[in-house]
Amino acid sequence: MDNLIDDIDKKIMQLLQHNARMSISHISKEISMSQPSVKERILKLEDKKIITGYSTEFNLGNLNRGMTTFILLKTEHCQETVEFCDKAREVTDLYRISGEYNYLIKVQTASIEELAEFQDSLIKLGPSKSHISLKNILEHRLLI
Q: CA-based Rg of the chain, rounded to a whole angstrom?
């Protein structure tokens, strides 16, 4: 990746990662470069699929979904698992993993009772282990 981008691209990416809504004029002031040049660099980063999208972060606690749980699932029903998780409002992330369990599911619920209901509906897919997050220490960490 380093030969695809230079230090200026990295600075632009850092600014966008911190605030995806930052205007091109603000970025140009921050890195002392003209607005057309910044725009061109961003478009090239998008064309190279280095920047693949822009997103919004939500405070899940304020949306009554502040309890984070990681569930390890062992299943032979892979497609059914993907479809189940895609429909479940509690699921925020689904990973195919190696080892004894083949899926890691991240869920956000309002309470332990809501988590229990979710796990009851998950039983049909196979055995699972749950790990409730006590505290989020590093989340949405800046990568650049």
A: 20
